[in-house]
Fold these 4 entries.
Entry 1:
Amino acid sequence: MKLLKLILLLFCCTFATTGFSQKKEKLKIIYAGKGDANNKEGFTTFLRDNQQQVHFVHKGIDFYCDKAVYYSKQDFIEAFSNVRMIQGDTITMTANYTEYSGKTELAFARGNVVLTEPQTTLTTDKLHFDRIKQQAFYNTSGKVVRDSSGTITSKIGRYYIPTKKYQFVDSVVLVNPEYTLKTKRLDFFNDSGHAYIFGPSTITGENNKIYCERGFYDTQEDFGYFERNAKIDYDDREVKGDSMYFDRKLNFASATNNIVVTDTINESIAKGDYAEVWKAKDSLFITGRALAISVQEKDSIYLHSDTLMLTGPEEHRITRAFYNAKLYKTDLAGKADSIHADHKTGLTQMINLARYNSKDPFAIKRKPLLWNIDNQMSGDTIHLISNVETKQLDSLKVFYNAFLVSKDTISDDGFNQTKGKELIGLFKENELYNVDIIKNAEVIFYSRNDTGELIGINKSKSGSINIKISDNDIEEIRLINKVDGDLSPESMFPKNANRLRGFDWRGDERPNSVEDLFKDDPPLNLPIIKGLDDYVPPEDFFDEELRTRIDNAKPEDKTKENKAARNVPEKKTLEVDKKPDLKKKKSGN
């Protein structure tokens, strides 16, 4: 008899629902083990039996649960215990409790909520699901697990089913075996694994850490683009730039515009317009107004060229500067085709490129030059040796066609000149104090007394020459194995003999400041970076359209609760509405 009543009840519900569906499709009860109608309160309770759960459908979506309470007039159902909601063959949601309105097509689930689709699983404590917009929303913290991309957690989340896009807000964390991403906002596309990052963000891997305030990352291919205060921290290097690219598989990074690379171990900084970092090779390439700064407590060294390369591990780093390389510190300046500096040994080589041979009309202009105080040194190759402990100059060597020139302190066009096959100089506190010219030495020297009066001009040849320098003045010249030469009065010294063969004073080329390093460069013309689009806040999940649906679902009996509005938050009050009326306050009204 009870079974007959249940069958009749199910038949009546189905018949009533079918008849009404011609106007508007209502929830349809498919199966229940037991049903109990409460006509006074206007609801029917359905229970499962030992074989099946309660089953009802609405517009292609299936609900299963152990217990359901159905409010027929409001077309609203409450589902309890082991709830499952299945949409087609792609979306399944399970929860301890779910309620659903057939009028608004809005579902609310709570208690161990799990939303799954082919590639991801979303878990949260409370979830809203709008079937019309095909969107799911939570604001009580949630977690999304994706097989190939890791796990994403956030306080607020939203899933757009048609585009398979997740939007995470507030305390967003993506954990992957290779890295951890933390950001304020994250748009994640499920099919492609593309992630768009908004706000202060970090991506931390085993050997690197990325920071940006706007970025893109491909979680499947492991590469990304980063902007706005973007930087990458390696074990011993920090790379900054207006726009950055990073490939985790290649352990490669590049940066464009306003590049700053800081070497924390070797206390050096590199700048330029474009940079590449190959971490596995310990290699940095930088070009476009490239500048390397060896940071020292009192007097840093600046090295500029078209292109810079820094290679080698931290304990043995090498700097290469090529194409119009220039060197500057307050008491030292240099210029060469290329400069090679070994930070471990303290050896800096200033090199003249081989393509500039003696027959090249520009060769003499390309020879390496070195200025210390007022002394200009030149030759085919120059070696500077520094003390790696004190960071001060120790000595220098000039190989082949060595020339030492300084202006006479009084005369207009007089130059003290020394030349030979090689030159060896010694430094004390970064000042040149001893010079030896070796083999085929020649000298022209303006000899003056203590009052500065010119005694005569010495032009001599010898096997070698030793020069003592004090307070930037030549104190003594010793000719060793003198061949010939005399001290002649200025009046008897021929004008056409006041320059040694190969003389080339290039004092106007000397950099006298950091800015001077760039004076021969073409005008700065940085490429325009289009950049990634700004963050556009989405429409509120509980927008006007949804609230209109909820209002239209109100029961005819105004004393009854609108079930469809039960778990919908109140409409937000605009900030302008919250501000006090300053005019009234001021007037005292």
Entry 2:
Amino acid sequence: MSFDELFAPMKEPMILAAGISIIVGAIAVVAGLTYFKKWGWLYKNWLTTVDHKKIGVMYVFVALIMLFRGGIDALLMRAQTAIPENGLLNSEHYNEIFTTHGLIMILFMAMPFIIGLMNIVVPLQIGARDVAFPRLNALSFWLFAAGAGLLNVSFVIGGSPNAGWTAYFPLAGTEFNPGVGNNYYAWALQISGIGTLMTGINFITTIFKMRAPGMKLMKMPMFTWSALITNVIITFAFPVLTVALALMTLDRQFGTKFFAMQDGGMDMMWANLFWVWGHPEVYIVILPAFGIYSEIIATFARKNLYGYKSMVMSMVIISLLSFMVWAHHFYTMGHGVMVNGVFSTTTMLIAVPTGVKIFNWLLTMRHGKIQFTTPMLYALAFIPIFTIGGVTGVMLAMASADYQYHNTMFLVAHFHYVLIPGVVFGVLAGYHYWWPKIFGFRLNEKLGKSAFWFIILGFNIAFFPLFILGLDGYARRMYTYSADTGYGPLNMVSFLGALMMGVGFILLCYNIYYSFRHSPRETTGDPWDARSLEWATHSPVPEYNFAVVPKINQLDEYWFAKKEGRDITAGEYERIHMPNNSSAPMWMAGVMFLFAFFFVFSVWAGVIVFGLATLGFLAYRSFEKDDGHYIEVAEIVETERRLGGEQ
């Protein structure tokens, strides 16, 4: 690839402006860290950390950046379609934006936000001092960050993926896409997906092996249950994506014909492999949000969660059915009546356990003393909005009706009515709820509620018109349309709603700055008077989480201990073994980033060098002896005194 081809995207004025802003921003960050002499602090405390809480914070930080990036893409798409025959974006740029918007929002915003909250909360909820494999946890984060970086680099070097976030063949093949954009797709998802798969294994091991004494499975908090089931889905679903992406790479870069339309290939095999992973992926991001809502509703309704066992069972059933519905994504591709009928039935069935959960939450709130905090507002808004998404999903589940709906904006409205309340509202609720646990102060409630109303109202104004436009025949993926169609007014309304959501996001970010400057610091580790075990330790949480590992006798042990005047963390201190920090995960992910970058452009010398370097890291780790370190009793006593506010 020539130099001109390499930087061809920079010929677009908006991409050039974005590239310049990235360079200027990077220079500003480097200058700030240098001026304030923070490089050592950053390296020691964050870049090399294996502390699950700090890794979780880094996941959430990157997720917020990706939310900004994906939100800009969404605003550009809505701006392009706000008026007929708009020339803001050309067709190629629009294709790149709607492709990267889907990828970023699902895989590089929702996934890291969910995994970040899991990292922060799950070990605390089960009374553990860290995850089972701390260094593997750090490597998982850095591989995700490498994948996110690779996808974002594509926008300015070589060109972004442009075949849609599903990358259907033959459109994603070299016949129609000879550039490197979809090579970026394959490698960005491959690297981050490997990190996610390792996270799944890590958290399953952590939850099964590191629970506090007495915490049986049916005494675990609901968020931990949702995390366990989610990570089981990850370990079964992500290997399918790994194989599919490897086959995509072989087709695009080595001339094989797995997904070709000739020489024995089958383009439909990609669609099947993608959705065998892709539909469980929907529940990978939604089930933890269900767990978050369960924690928040029980806390702010001042009641125990109604129907605990049915909630657990409904999530187990959802996880099983999630692998049995994938073909509903392509009813129109010629399966036949029998296959379409089977998948139509399983798709409708999965609505049943989801409906059970809705009634559980409603009955939890019944006769409760509800506190309308910012996290609770997101939980309350979720129920009716998600129900609209679920009902329209049942409409789409009917194979015969789907022939009419499937390629229209009705479908776009449906999956946004599922994913935004089902995931985005969930992670924002959890973000506000657990913020004081990590940082020792609450986000400002007034600003939080203002952001909430902008986001909620903006969302409905942006996406409800798309139901009407879809039923009126407005097709997906159209980058422009004529005035004669009559689609202009509702598209303009949708754009205004998207702008309102943008204002909500700005308020969300400003709230961090304002609260950091002005919010009073908490004097308790339990500012919400909550129920589960993470609130039994200090805020912010010390490195070792619990000075004394609590013993659990019942569900919501911490809640009952508070009411009975018991301290479940009381006991004699002993020295605590903790893992050492390590720079290896960050450097290994950097090497894999370069390996993938050179692979994208088929620069085989670079591939060989950085491939061997990756193997070198693995070999070094195999022979490394790292026994961790001990926190002595005197240090524990001092930390507990300081965090407990004792003089």
Entry 3:
Amino acid sequence: MSNPRRFTAGVTALALSLVASSSAFAAAPHAPADFVGTTQPFASNAIYFVVTDRFVNGDPSNDHRHQGGAHPTFDIPVHGPNGQTANLGYLGGDFKGVLENAGYIRGMGFGAVWITPIVDNPDQAFTGGKPVKWGSTLTDHGKSGYHGYWGINFYRVDEHLPSKHLDYAQFTHGMHAAGLKVVQDIVLNHGSPAFSMPVKQPQFGQIFDANGKLIADEDNLPPWKLDPVKHPLQRFYNAWPDLAQLSNNNDQNPAVLKYFVDAYLKWIGEGADAFRIDTMNHMSTRFWAKFAAAIHAKHPGFFMFGEAFDSNVDNLGKYTWKSGGSMSLLDFPLKDAMRKVFEHPHSDFGTLQAALYLTNGPYANPYRLVTFYDNHDMKRLDASDNGFIDANNFLFTARGIPAIYYGSEIGFERGKGEHQGNRNYFGQKRIDAASKSPIYQHLKRIAQLREHTPALQRGLMLVEHMKGDQAAFYRVLQHNGTHQIALVLLNKSDRPANFSVQRYLQAGHWQAALGGSDIDIAKHGTLHATVPAHGARVYLLDAVAQQPDLVAELTRLMRERGHPSGVYTH
């Protein structure tokens, strides 16, 4: 029989041990809640978008200035009033011109460059379509495929882009070495102009495979005259028109899906880091779900964002849902709101708040959207220098992944639409002089801040107030050991503005990340700051969120951040 004293002592020791363990467990801090807008790695990068042919001519030897015969493709001016010009032809921009200016782009604080499609386009100017008038859109008579969106062979690089020892793979390698990811613009909805030519031109309305074999041909017929039953080469296309005279690819045909999946997997293999998808809303969500699944089967997590050129949010969200491939979008509704606010002095910051859709919105995840205020398919932002500065201050601190169209850093061709100069040649001289522009100077400052501030890249966005000329909001990131609270104060008035923020404000040492001085905030304290005219202040608190009203609102934002049908995408 065991010694009862020894037994009692053992039980007592065990009990004391359990009590000690229990006390230690009770005293241990709970893991902080997860507060994060998106975990998508690509969200770290702001995007600089170039129409490659119109950026910089780095290699004149690939200009092909005499290409096209009777229908030449180089330098086809369109004249407007007061000596203004646009252009329908190639102007020489190429991979080398982009790569040689990678330092310029990276130096502004961008982490990625979005380039227009790289695939082979027709070798002549188009003879069909409507005549181009100053400022007209979807008028293609006499235009070349300088922009890249008129693909005929999606497996081959257009001859105007590469140089000796600089093919696409070498270009992406060079961009990566410069610290920049490459976003490749891709088209699946259509090929080149396909009908209305007085006499059928070679390559137009045709698609070739990787071996150069003709696999689709509209034969200069309007879509309603196609007969895919009798003519196999017409089965690639739908028998109804879409945009202008462009061929309209049949998203119900499995051969169409396979052709493009294989083509774009090839370009990922040569270094593309992300895709921007043209005319996404012209094809079915079922097609996009299949396309995304095929890409992600080989490259899990590969980032793709689409252009659904629509400002009606009821039409947009489905492209971000699981049923549509769980992809991202260009944020057209927020673009519209930004133009209303930043093109017009004395406008109301509150216009932007509703367009953010931070809770129960149409998107699977609003934080994954690519945000912008203009691009090549619309009029450039028609704002003053201060309007551009205010727009960039908002764009680089609010939710989403910001994208800037080339030249916006100096207000290039502001207010100009297609065939008015929207896509005019930028050139090395403007790049070399860009640092003198106040728009550039302020853009660089705010873009570099985002680049070094995780909360601005992927944190939840909590609005304190947006009204009149003032906006105050928090960006909060609490995920995988990172905890950062950013307080953003924006002033778009012509005078300095005083801010007093108390709501959601947590006690602690707030570091001045952009202007001003560090501020120590006591419990239930108020942060007072003066923000210069058309300026921004950003304060950072590297701490776990503990302020009760702040935690409550962040918890609600996490719960309501995505549309229920979207199956929330991180």
Entry 4:
Amino acid sequence: MTVFTLLEIVSALSFIAMTAYLTARSRFIMRCARYPFHRASQFSLIVLFAFLAITGNYSTLPWDESRVTTRLIGVILAGISGGPVSGFGVGFICASYLVMIEYSSIVLPLFIIAAGSLSGMLRLRFTFHQITPLTGARVALVIELCQISLITLFSDSTATLFLNFKSAVLTMGVSITGVWLFLYIINWIEAEQDIYGARAAQLSLDIASRTLPFLRLGFNTHSATITANIIYELTQVDAVSITGRYKRLAFIGQGADHHKPSEPILSAAVKETITSKTMKVVNTPSDRGCPFPFCPLKSSVVVPLFSSDRVIGTIEIARVHENTVSELDIHIADGIANLLSVQIQLAEVDKQRKMREKAELKALRAQINPHFLFNTINIIMSFCRTDPDKARSLLGSLATLMQRGYSNQDELVTLQNELAAIMAYLEIAMSRFGDRLDIAVNIDDETSTALIPALSLQPLVENALNHGLFPKLGSCLLSIEAYIDENTLIITITDNGVGIAPEKLAKIQAGHSDGVGLTNVHQRLTSLYGTKYGLTITSKPPFGTEIRLRIPFQQSVCIQKESGVL
């Protein structure tokens, strides 16, 4: 073997290595290799490997007077990558080329078709990633041994047999090396991309965990600035930019002198990303499209941020040199954008949930039972003649309730304030019950300053009076207790009324009750504090009902300041 022959072998294998590198870098071709059993994928693989097989006819290696080609490499790789259909297709194209161009005998073309089909049978049993370079080399070895057997069978003379056998041995070595090299480069690049993906995923998760508390407050200039600083710190890129749909929200790094927050978007690449809703990788200043003539940033990757299917902004990771955006930068930018989009959507959902809860709370405050108001006015009118002091007291209690219903109070109030409104309500209720109703209130001193959601107790008291005690004949008792157990505030409202039927209690606990009072209170509590808190209802008809409210113990801020806690 001469030096010239070695150079030819290196040249042929270099062409195969270059093809493998370009194939591994093409997301489209790799997607076709992973999912080859579609017409579009098979057609793409046939075109690629048919080109490799046909050019292999011209990668001739001088070996005495015979020609050694690399066409079988493309045929074998077509079957390994795309299955029997792709292997047969490339083999048929290569065989047709031999018949029409080189006027070859029919034996070699038929063998090439069979080689492509047989190598494709392996793809039916394994995925593309399961076929290792060593497995591909073994397939090439078997096919080349079959070719040597055909050469031995159809040789005319001993001299021709010897010459063809020497060429076939060299072809076998080149084919095995070529197939192994192609699959090795594919696996190497994919392993490298997996490493990039893992690093990018870890980095994206770190960024997401640090930015979550700020983005949950909304996607605005403040949260974007904090997010951009965190990304700039962790990724160590030259610049990080976050924009809204029409203006820049934050910019950190080189170029900050002209890429300023709250100003319109300058970069053409960012505008194009918002319009196209797709990632854009730019490697030159002209592609980036910054109108500032001395902008230090030359290349970048821009990824859109979504809320549902609507683009609400972009995130850009930029470099100061051309063609320096790496695979890791692309993975990081894409991962960060996906996680930030999820966080922004969660912030929107959280905002809508809070708005809905505020609307429900306002509706609950404004809800004054017309029958209750009518009965209260009638009772006050009756006391105006017989007991003016009592009428005056009832009017004060009614004024307290109406003021509370129509005023815009805080979402959290102290237990003491909530009980004041409840006692005003109970004073009016006792005028309806007469001497039948007794009220017992037992509140620990430290619980009086505890913060509870507004209107979380009054619906429970109303439910106990209207559905538990009012239908009862005889003496009625309503008990309200509050105490702290392991940093948990527990409030119980107990009545000795008629109780709740098991069927109705099951509907209430499942959230299918017709009334909104108990369900509303329970849902608000679980939304604020978690599912381990809320209401627990126990009823034993006809002996009464107990409703237990559990929330974390939290004191009023004013009380904490006075005691020196803050």
